[in-house]
């Protein structure tokens, strides 16, 4: 069994994924990153469906980095699904996107996003942003105890 | 109603009133004239009555003298009674005419003499009988007296007839005049009415036409507005999506070149590293451009969140924030006191940030930069100004100053995207204000702006420069 996934990175741009992973690795934040290239893939992973049938709800990612413009199921839809399910609603979700459109920001917060960050163009700034995000959510922040929420849903279901 | 129509209406009113007065006066005069004609007829009639009375008296006396019968005295007595009264009436009726008064005075003794003669003859008849009476009648001068009476009355009549003729002529002339006045007046009234009708019809026609034109213009304007707003919306969403979608590849260019520089930097020679740095720098610049473009398009779509804002504290905050940009330089801030304004504080802050950082930027080559911010009064409007002693520009290019991507300086001399002032102008215009600039090459530039909303207009007397400055040296 591989290590537990710490970060689920949802982004359809291979380059953006690579640069994000590079930034994370450089800052030695995490080696356990799960990539989803569209919203449907992200939901399959989170809800242990399709290729991720065998996965357990108890091993939840500690942080989801979510792009908004995604094929198939867009970022806000993914966010809605995450926040709408007992088993996933407490996972910190940070929107990491090109858009600073006010409507997107408002919709994101209305759907319960944990933070909203516009990707800086400058790579050094970007790397610094990623470092701070990783540091905060994976190290400083006290994450919700995964087992409790997964169990409560299992009982209820 | 235009002035000429008012004048026409006033004229028409005066004419109509004059015609009315003239008609009334003509009618009154006509009545008077006719009254005089009737009066003259009455005088003639009375004169005739006097003659008849005298004749009747004579007739009655003759009958008595011939027959001795008292019954003939009856008309005689009646005539005697009448003749005095009739003469008196003639006298009264001609009271206004001295000629006739003299004539009637002349007539009266003759008539009296004649009547006295008659009375005398009748007395002779009574006392001495028919023969003596007849003889007295025959030899008496009664015929001469009678003739004189006739002559005098005839004279008076002809005087009166002359008068009648004159008066009838006057009356006829008056009537003619009245007829003329009525005909002319009515004609004029009809003319005025027709002209008024024409004028009204023409004015109505003009108004209808103007209304039609106005409606047409309005429709056109509405259509244009709708088109403009559509175009504007399309443009905004286009520029937004361009800016938005441009960021992704830019990030990749900047990102990969940075990574390359960091990973392989040590093994690259100086020239190779410089090339990579240029790639990175280009991407960064374009990133800033895109971000500026984004905020410009955002301001276009954004609703103003107006609130009463103390511009003083806003300005001080901006000056403080600019501290790092001024480090290592001598910058003197002269900050006057500003008013509170009804505005969007976030956007207003952006205005100050852009104008002041421009001032800081363009004074970069000065040994000692002086940046002044204050408020003046112009036409009862408060005008805020930002003045620097920097590079300035030539006034012939002032028209380009606020255009997007327009730059008056080489990038080598002063960096910039050419969007900052466009953003400032858009914000000021959104507030209903106006922005303009005065400058001289190498002598500095001054930017002036107003905030146009009604709350920001005050009616105090112009106070000109308010010099209540605090001096900050960064």
Word description of this protein:
The complex is a heterodimer of chains A (157) and B (474). With 157 residues, chain A is of the alpha/beta class. Chain A has a single domain (7-156), classed as Rossmann fold (3-Layer(aba) Sandwich), CATH 3.40.50.2300. Chain A has helices at residues 14-26, 39-46, 75-83, 102-110, 123-140, 146-156, and strands at 7-10, 33-36, 63-66, 93-97, 115-118. A five-stranded parallel beta sheet of chain A has the order 2-1-3-4-5, sandwiched between helices. The longest helix of chain A has 18 residues, at 123-140. Chain A is globular and about 40 Å long. By secondary structure, chain B is an alpha+beta fold. Chain B has two domains: 3-201; 304-473, 2-Layer Sandwich (Heat Shock Protein 90). Chain B has helices spanning 3-67, 73-93, 98-128, 130-139, 142-264, 270-301, 311-321, 323-326, 345-362, 420-430, and strands spanning 307-310, 330-335, 340-343, 368-378, 381-388, 435-440, 444-450, 470-473. In chain B, a hairpin with a 2-residue loop joins strand 4 and strand 5 (381-388). In chain B, helix 1 packs parallel to helix 3 (98-128). The model of chain B is unreliable at 457-474 (pLDDT under 50). At the A-B interface, helix 1 and helix 5 of A face helix 5 and helix 6 of B.
Separate helix tally of chain B: 10
Largest sheet strand order of chain B: 6-7-5-4-2-8
Order of helices and strands of chain A: EHEHEHEHEHH
Count the strands of chain B? 8
Give the terminus-to-terminus CA distance of chain B.
Answer: 67 Å
Number of domains of chain A: 1
């Amino acid at each position: 069994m591989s290590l537990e996934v710490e970060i689920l990175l949802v982004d359809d741009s291979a380059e953006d994924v690579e640069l994000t992973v590079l930034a994370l690795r450089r800052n030695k934040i995490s080696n356990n990153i799960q990539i989803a290239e569209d919203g449907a893939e992200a939901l399959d992973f989170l809800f242990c469906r399709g290729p991720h049938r065998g996965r357990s709800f108890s091993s939840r990612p500690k942080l989801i980095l979510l792009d908004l413009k995604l094929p198939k199921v867009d970022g806000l839809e993914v966010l809605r699904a995450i926040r709408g399910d007992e088993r996933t609603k407490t996972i910190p979700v940070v929107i990491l996107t090109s858009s600073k459109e006010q409507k997107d920001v408002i919709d994101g917060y209305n759907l319960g996003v944990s933070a909203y960050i516009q990707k800086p163009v400058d790579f050094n700034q970007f790397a610094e942003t990623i470092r701070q995000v990783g540091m905060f959510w994976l190290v400083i922040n006290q994450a919700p105890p995964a087992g409790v929420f997964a169990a409560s849903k299992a009982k209820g279901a | 109603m235009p002035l000429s129509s008012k004048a026409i209406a006033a004229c028409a009113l005066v004419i109509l009133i004059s015609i009315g007065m003239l008609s009334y006066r003509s009618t009154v005069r006509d009545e008077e004239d006719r009254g005089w004609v009737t009066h003259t007829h009455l005088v003639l009639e009375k004169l005739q009555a006097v003659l008849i009375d005298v004749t009747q008296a004579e007739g009655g006396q003759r009958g008595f003298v011939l027959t001795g019968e008292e019954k003939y005295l009856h008309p005689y007595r009646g005539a005697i009674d009448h003749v005095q009264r009739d003469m008196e009436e003639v006298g009264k009726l001609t009271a206004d005419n001295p000629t006739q008064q003299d004539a009637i005075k002349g007539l009266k003794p003759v008539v009296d003499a004649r009547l006295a003669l008659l009375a005398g003859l009748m007395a002779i008849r009574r006392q001495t009988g028919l023969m003596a009476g007849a003889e007295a009648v025959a030899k008496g001068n009664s015929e001469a007296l009678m003739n004189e009476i006739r002559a005098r009355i005839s004279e008076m009549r002809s005087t009166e007839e002359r008068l009648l003729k004159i008066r009838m002529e006057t009356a006829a002339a008056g009537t003619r005049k009245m007829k003329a006045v009525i005909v002319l007046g009515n004609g004029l009234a009809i003319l005025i009415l027709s002209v008024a009708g024409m004028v009204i019809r023409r004015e109505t026609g003009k108004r209808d036409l103007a209304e039609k034109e106005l409606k047409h213009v309005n429709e056109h304007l509405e259509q244009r507005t709708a088109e403009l707003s559509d175009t504007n919306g399309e443009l905004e969403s286009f520029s937004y999506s361009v800016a938005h979608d441009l960021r992704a590849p830019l990030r990749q260019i900047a990102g990969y070149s940075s990574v390359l520089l960091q990973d392989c930097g040590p093994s690259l020679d100086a020239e190779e590293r410089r090339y990579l740095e240029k790639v990175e720098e280009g991407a960064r610049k374009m990133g800033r451009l895109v971000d500026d473009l984004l905020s410009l398009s955002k301001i276009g779509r954004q609703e103003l969140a107006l609130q009463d804002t103390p511009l003083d504290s806003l300005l001080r905050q901006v000056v403080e924030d600019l501290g790092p940009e001024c480090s290592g330089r001598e910058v003197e801030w002269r900050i006057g006191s500003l008013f509170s304004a009804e505005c969007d504080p976030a956007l207003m802050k952006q205005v100050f940030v852009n104008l002041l950082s421009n001032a800081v930027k363009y004074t970069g080559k000065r040994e000692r930069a002086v940046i002044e911010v204050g408020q003046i009064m112009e036409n009862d409007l408060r005008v805020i100004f930002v003045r620097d002693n920097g590079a300035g520009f030539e006034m012939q290019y002032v028209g380009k100053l606020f255009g997007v991507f327009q730059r008056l300086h080489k990038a080598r001399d002063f960096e910039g995207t050419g969007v900052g002032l466009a953003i400032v102008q858009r914000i000021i215009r959104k507030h209903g204000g106006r922005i303009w600039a005065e400058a001289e090459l190498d002598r500095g530039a001054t930017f002036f702006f107003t905030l146009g909303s009604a709350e920001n207009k005050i009616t105090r007397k112009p106070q000109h420069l308010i010099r209540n400055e605090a001096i900050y040296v960064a």
